[in-house]
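Handout, section B. The chain below has 514 residues.
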Amino acid sequence: MELLRILSPFLSQLLLILLPQVSFAEFNTLPLKEATLADLQLGFKQNTLTSRQLVEFYLGQIQRLNPHLNAVTEVNPDALYEADKADHERRAKAPVSNSMLHGIPILLKDNIATKDKLNTTAGSFALLGSIVPRDSGVATKLRKAGAIILGKASMTEWAAFKSNNAPNGWSARGGQGVNPYNSSVTPCGSSSGSGIAVAANMAAVTLGTDTSGSILCPSSFNAAVGIRPTVGLTSRAGVVPISSRQDTIGPICRTVTDAVHVLDAIAGIDHDDIATIETSKYIPKGGYAQFLKRDGLKGKRIGIARGFFDFGDALFLLKHLSNISRHILIFRQGGAVLVDHLKITNALEIFGNSSGERTALEIEFKIYLNAYLKELVSSPVRSLADVIAFNNKNSKLEKIKEYGQDILTSSQATKGIGNEWKAAVSNLGRLSKNGFEKLMKKNKLDALVTAGEIVSSVLAIGGFPGIIVPAGYEDGVPIGICFGGLRGAEPKLIEIAYAFEQATKIRNPPPLNF
């Protein structure tokens, strides 16, 4: 049995190599690369495309590209069966076939549980072979919408909460994820595989998770659209956790429209995550797609955070500010009211070691991970202590010698909810209230715009939403533009992000010369 566990990851990689052999010529007449959900649904409606053909196309893309990009950990052996089921439902005019996600293949980050033949490992061998009790809340909603779970996307191991030395996009199971635009540049993490896969057309859409930048960052670096929802807007049940204060689940797609359709499908109450009950008050009647408006910039008060980096890398600052400057005209032409030269006055403290974010996260990670592991039907590990012991025992397998597990061991040394945690969380609340919240309310802003994902921690500590959209390329490497708002601000952020996207249409697919 132990030998099977050790060989399983290699068998999984073999499965990726031995995917159904797809004739790419078969799809040359179908514009599947860069196809949107609307394109795909039109193909279904006009009987020029089936879900089986679509799944076979993406399996072929994975077969061809994954050896170079390491974006997919494993594929669902039942994906073609699910595709045939969707095609049957469409022919039978089943009500579910009216969903925008019906028959659409989706990759889920490898920390989002699915009760099927797929593993859920957070990129670690320690969870290989574990059996989850049920689908995660978001997987349940996706299946209800008729989506096909195509497989699991690779990720930074333990959502970048294992080692300070491990590079973004690396995991023991998935290897090193590669940015499809420039292999020498980070794909960013920890939803790296989700960003890579959707950029390289290895799936129609993907899901990621975000504790402090893990949706916004890979979206920025992979020319994708990422939505970090208000914490609690989407269920975290069945997702390998870090912190219930900051964890949130959201889409990574190629267009704002596609991301919004996915958000519509996964947002809402899940009684296995009580936070969704209170946060559901933010969900507008009629859903989020109604806010996809070309004139969405009109009348919006948008803050320009030019002074955001005054404590950081000057070269980074100059390159990114020039990117924002090129788009200020777009905001003005769209009718937005710009409030320029703003600063988050306590940004230095938020990003510093004294903020309390790392302290709070390390305390919470141990508590929430232990609870997750204990609920598994079966698992090689039942606690964070077991994970650390497993890594030590299998050091060569886990590459412990290269990257270590210092974050895991720091978390294990914590003593639970106490004065240290209370002080850290209190300080984070103060920083959020006196920084981002004060700036937004004082200037009556609908959104704060920043270049790249640098605002991630500011949004994360307050549970605030953000949407990032492709905004340009620096030396061939994508850079996004991020719109952040207060809790529940998704409708306004969607209007702004969509209008900006439609006015610019900057995204280009990666070259992929292999």
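Note. The chain has one domain: 2-504. Compare this with the example in section A.
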